[in-house]
Structure formats: structure tokens, C-alpha cells
């Protein structure tokens, strides 16, 4: 079984997680740039973070046989902080980089006017750079948040077929599917979607354009949720080709829209900017 986790924050995870993910079948990940929990106070801390997503983290993933790409954006939550907004000016030079396969995570957190502005501006950046967009839908007031998101996408230059709407659930899947966008589901240990609800959604709405992710980060989450969904699909009567479509081919096709996806595992480099993962030399 080969698994592509299309949304996971590896910066917040350990090397044990990389080992366990590889053993479970994970061979590729996309790491969206997001909020760190601790608010950033200047655009410069975004830039160091983006550099880590393009440098140290793919280096680290390669040590464990996993291909790593990222998405770059001003996240919805920090779009409300005037100290962070100048990072929008820095995004174009990052969106040119080979490891960047989408603009994201963008979207709504609290549905404020500042979030409207940042979402619209970053959808335009995606269109200008020939990149798809990863759009986070709010965890509260989900259906209203989805509808407002779809309105802003419809007003943008980016076609819905180049948008992945993430954190969907039973209340939002139908309208999201009708929009023509790609459908992302984050499967968590004890909130939001679980693997059994996910299987029920797949039975009702089909497998086309559906992506499943762990969205594992610094909070309560599990980087093996993708594998648990695959196992639950098989137990529910789906075939191995169905699992491969949802857990591999769909994310490959979506992020492949960037023209930048490289799935052969990188040869692990010995050092990244003079550092290895070993302490005290070999
Ligand atoms: Zn996320």
C-alpha cells in the first residue's frame, strides 16, 4: 500500500513519526504552511519558517524515505494580525520555488474582513503563478464558512478545479462537491471526522476528487490516520485500487497541477547547511 498524506505539519512531529509513517506505507507528504500556535510578531519569522519547509524538513523526510513538498501562504488566523500582513509582499518569490506545490493554507478562520482580503489576494497569487490552492474551511459555523469561501473562489481568476477545500465533513461535502472543487477531509483522533465517518462519506459521495489527510500538527492528532482510513475502507468492502485512488492517485493528480511534484524519494543528503540529524558526528 502506498500513501500520500496531502496535509501534515511535519515540523511539529518527531523522527519516530517519520519511521512509523514509512512503516505504514506513507511515501509522500505535503506540508502546508500554517499557524505555529505561538503568534508570530513579524514577517521575518514567516520567512525562516518557509525556508525550513523548503530546506531542513525535506532533508529530514528524505532520511526516512519520504518525499516532502510544501504549500506557502499567510494562514487565515494570522491574516487578522497587522504585524503579519507584510509577508504577503514576500510570497511571490517563494511561490517560484520548486518545492512549492500550492498556495495554502488560505481561507477562513473567524470570517473577518481581513480574512476576506487575504483569501482573495492569495487566490490571485495562485492564478498568477499557475499553482493550485489549498483552502482551509473554518472549524466553527462550517456551512456558512464554506458558502462564503465558494463565493470568493467564484469571484477569483482561479477555477474551482484548481482548489482543494479542506476540513470538510458531512455538513459541507455536498455543496463542496457541487462546486467542482477537490474535497479534503482531515481525520483526527477524537474530533471532527474519524475513519468510520470517512468511509460512510466515501460510500455516499464516491471517490472522485476526494483526498484524506491526518492534518497532524502540534495538537491532538495522529500521523497514521491516513493508514487507518485505508484499513477501514478495506474492512468496509472497498478494493485495493479504491484505496490507491483516494490515498495516492487523487493527491498526486491535485498537487500535480503545479507541475512540480517529484515522487521518487530524494537520495538522503548527508548534511543540510552543515547539520545532520546525528549528534556528535557519525
Ligand atoms: Zn493544517
UniProtKB/TrEMBL annotation:
Q: Which domain of life is it from?
A: Bacteria
Give the family this protein belongs to, as stated in its UniProt record. Belongs to the metallo-dependent hydrolases superfamily.
UniProt keyword terms in alphabetical order: Hydrolase, Metal-binding
Name of this protein: Hydrolase TatD
Which GO terms fall under molecular function for this chain's record?
hydrolase activity, acting on ester bonds; metal ion binding
Which InterPro entries does the UniProt record give?
Metal_Hydrolase, TatD-like, UCP005295
What SUPFAM superfamilies does the entry give?
Metallo-dependent hydrolases
Amino acid at each position: 500500500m502506498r500513501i500520500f498524506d496531502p496535509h501534515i505539519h511535519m515540523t511539529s512531529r518527531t523522527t519516530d513519526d517519520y519511521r512509523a509513517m514509512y512503516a505504514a506505507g506513507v511515501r509522500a507528504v505535503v506540508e502546508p504552511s500554517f499557524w505555529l500556535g505561538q503568534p508570530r510578531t513579524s514577517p521575518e519569522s514567516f520567512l525562516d519558517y518557509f525556508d525550513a519547509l523548503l530546506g531542513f524538513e525535506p532533508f529530514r523526510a528524505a532520511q526516512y524515505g519520504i518525499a516532502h513538498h510544501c504549500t506557502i501562504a499567510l494562514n487565515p488566523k494570522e491574516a487578522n494580525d497587522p504585524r503579519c500582513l507584510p509577508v504577503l509582499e514576500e510570497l511571490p518569490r517563494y511561490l517560484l520555488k520548486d518545492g512549492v506545490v500550492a498556495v495554502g493554507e488560505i481561507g477562513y478562520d473567524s470570517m473577518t474582513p481581513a480574512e476576506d482580503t487575504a483569501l482573495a489576494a492569495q487566490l490571485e497569487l495562485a492564478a498568477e503563478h499557475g499553482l493550485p490552492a489549498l483552502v482551509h474551511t473554518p472549524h466553527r459555523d462550517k456551512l456558512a464558512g464554506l458558502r462564503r469561501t465558494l463565493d470568493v473562489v467564484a469571484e477569483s481568476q482561479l477555477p474551482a478545479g484548481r482548489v482543494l477545500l479542506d476540513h470538510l465533513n458531512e455538513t459541507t461535502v455536498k455543496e463542496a462537491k457541487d462546486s467542482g472543487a477537490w474535497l479534503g477531509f482531515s481525520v483526527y483522533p477524537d474530533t471532527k471526522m474519524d475513519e468510520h465517518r470517512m468511509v460512510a462519506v466515501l460510500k455516499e459521495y464516491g471517490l472522485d476528487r476526494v483526498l484524506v489527510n491526518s492534518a497532524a500538527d502540534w495538537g491532538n492528532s495522529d500521523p497514521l490516520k491516513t493508514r487507518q482510513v485505508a484499513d477501514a475502507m478495506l474492512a468496509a468492502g472497498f478494493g485495493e485500487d479504491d484505496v490507491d485512488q483516494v490515498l495516492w492517485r487523487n493527491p498526486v493528480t491535485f498537487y500535480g497541477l503545479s507541475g512540480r511534484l517529484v515522487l521518487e524519494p530524494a537520495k538522503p543528503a548527508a548534511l543540510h547547511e552543515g547539520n545532520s540529524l546525528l549528534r556528535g558526528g557519525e
